[in-house]
Each structure stands twice: as C-alpha cells, then as structure tokens.
C-alpha cells in the first residue's frame, strides 16, 4: 500500500508540473526575434518604415540589429531626437554589429544610426510595441452576460462554444 500511495503522490506532482508547463509554456515561447532589415540588416539606403509596416511587435519580442562592426551603431532615442537625427550626448550606442534589444515596455520606440549622416540618409526605425500577446489558449473567454437588442435587461447566454 505504501508503494501505491508514493506512486500516486509522484503522479500528482507530475500532473501539476505538466499543467503548469501547458498553461505558461506558450507565454514563455511566444516572444519573436525580428532581424531589423531582414537579410539587408542595419544599413544606409534601406526603407525601415516599409520593413516595419504590417509587423506586430509585442513586449518581450527582440529587435536584432546586424551590421559590420565599426560601420554603424544603434542609439535608442526619443521622438524629437528621431526627427532631428540627433544622438543624445549622454547615451552610449550599441556597436557590436549583432545587437539585441528586448522590447520591455509598450509604446513607440525610436532607433537611429549615429554614424555620420546615416540617419539623415534613412538609417532610422520607429515602431509601436503592443502589450504582451496572450497565446490563443490563454485568451480571455467572452462574458456569459450579454444584452438583447432592444432590451436593457441583461440575460445569461448559455451558448457555449
């Protein structure tokens, strides 16, 4: 009997672990890597706004800037510095040629190259980062409360999927 009780406890723990992995695993693996400029990388003469158009960036995703080290750099700037192509004096640029930026917060994000007149020649990127996406299995279910057209009294909707 002791063996069966121990086996039962062990299976319970495995079940709980699998439940946790099934529930939260998709959230952990949902982040995407975006190579800025795709195969062109981070360079002059590329339309980064066209590249970003249609892409959805979410909190947790990563931007990867690839370029020959020493030829370019990456500054994270504000909207004003983006418009004027001004690298902040107090900021330290990324310079490795394989720079990864984790998108940690939602909102607009601006990036420029601070080498020469590269920014003026189009080497700049602005994106909008959306809140972290929930995987389809974690999307909130619709409320069972709804309103009938023409009625102001709620009724319970039992049409479950």
Kindly report the spatial arrangement of strands forming the biggest sheet.
Answer: 2-7-6-4
Could you tell me the strand content as a percent range? Answer: 15-25%
Oligomer: single chain
What's the main sheet like? Answer: 4 strands, mixed
The overall strand count is 9
* Shape category: globular
Put simply, the count of helices is 3
- Helical fraction: 10-25%
Q: Secondary-structure element sequence?
A: HEHEEEHEEEEE
Describe this structure in words.
The longest helix has 27 residues, at 2-28. It contains three helices and nine strands. The model is unreliable at 3-7 and 16-21 (pLDDT under 50). It has a four-stranded mixed beta sheet. Strands 1-3-5 form a three-stranded mixed beta sheet, with no helix packed on it. It has 161 residues and is α/β, with parallel strands linked by helices.
Give the key terms:
161 residues; alpha/beta; four-stranded mixed β-sheet; three-stranded mixed β-sheet; 24% helix; globular
Quick rundown:
The protein is an alpha/beta fold. The chain has helices spanning 2-28, 48-52, 79-84, and strands at 33-35, 57-58, 62-66, 75-77, 98-102, 107-112, 124-130, 145-147, 154-156. The longest helix has 27 residues, at 2-28.
Please write out the topology.
Blueprint: H1 2-28, E1 33-35, H2 48-52, E2 57-58, E3 62-66, E4 75-77, H3 79-84, E5 98-102, E6 107-112, E7 124-130, E8 145-147, E9 154-156
